[in-house]
């Protein structure tokens, strides 16, 4: 059934942004930051079905569209590019104020003006196996005067998973603070 306005005239279908299950379930999508996803949606709003590859967006324009800071937008563009969701077609310039911004191509949408089918570069992205996220965990152990004598405390864990033990002889109550790196 065709959509009509109040006077009975037919209306064009409302434009929408499409995110497929294949793309949103991919390792590349799961590794994107929330800011990068927000920027990607903003870029998709500029695609009218004919201009992919000519999506002009500067960092300043992206700030206006997303409400993110300049550094966050720059990092989001890099994140999208590194993971294969966008490709810069022509780089913009800061030398000319008001000059052309960088033009972008969404890799998951056809680019009719460039005669390109979707390249789906994001499907080839794989997480770096050598890169791990680590954090320091700090714990405090209180030892009372009843624990007098030789006591074993783990002091560090090496990359092979072995635990080094330190022998401590105490005669007064102490607190021991230990830091462990967990990856």
Furnish the topology, listing elements before pairings:
Layout: H1 21-24, H2 27-31, H3 34-46, E1 55-56, H4 59-66, H5 70-82, E2 86-90, E3 103-106, E4 135-143, E5 149-157, E6 163-170, E7 174-182
Antiparallel strand pairs: 1-3, 2-3, 4-7, 5-6
Q: Which structural class should the secondary elements be placed in?
A: alpha+beta
Q: How many H/I helices?
A: 5
Overall, the morphology is globular
Helix proportion? 10-25%
- What's the N-to-C terminus distance? 56 Å
Number of strands: 7
Portion of residues in beta strands equals 25-35%
Which architecture of the largest domain does the CATH hierarchy give at level 2? Orthogonal Bundle
**CATH superfamily annotation of the largest domain:** Winged helix-like DNA-binding domain superfamily/Winged helix DNA-binding domain
Question: What are the secondary-structure elements, in order, as H or E?
Answer: HHHEHHEEEEEE
Mean pLDDT: 77
Please outline the major beta sheet: 3 strands, antiparallel
What is the compact description of this entry?
The chain is α+β, with helices and mostly antiparallel strands and 183 residues long. It contains five helices and seven strands.
Summarize this structure as a short list of keywords or feature phrases:
183 residues; alpha+beta; Arc Repressor Mutant, subunit A; 2 domains; three-stranded antiparallel beta sheet
């Amino acid at each position: 059934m065709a959509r009509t306005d109040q006077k009975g005239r037919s209306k064009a279908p409302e434009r929408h942004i499409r995110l497929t299950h294949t793309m949103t379930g991919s390792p590349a999508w799961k590794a994107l930051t929330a800011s990068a996803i927000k920027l990607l949606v903003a870029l998709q709003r500029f695609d009218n079905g004919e201009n992919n590859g000519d999506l002009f967006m500067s960092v300043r324009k992206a700030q206006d569209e997303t409400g993110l800071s300049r550094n966050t937008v720059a990092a989001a563009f890099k994140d999208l590019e590194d993971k294969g969701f966008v490709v810069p077609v022509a780089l913009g310039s800061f030398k000319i104020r008001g000059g052309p911004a960088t033009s972008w191509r969404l890799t998951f949408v056809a680019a009719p003006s460039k005669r390109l089918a979707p390249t789906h570069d994001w499907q080839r992205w794989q997480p770096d196996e050598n890169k791990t996220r680590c954090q320091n965990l700090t714990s405090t152990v209180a030892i009372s005067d009843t624990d007098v004598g030789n006591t074993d405390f783990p002091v560090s864990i090496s990359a092979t998973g072995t635990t080094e033990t330190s022998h401590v002889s105490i005669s007064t109550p102490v607190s021991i603070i230990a830091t462990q790196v967990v990856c």
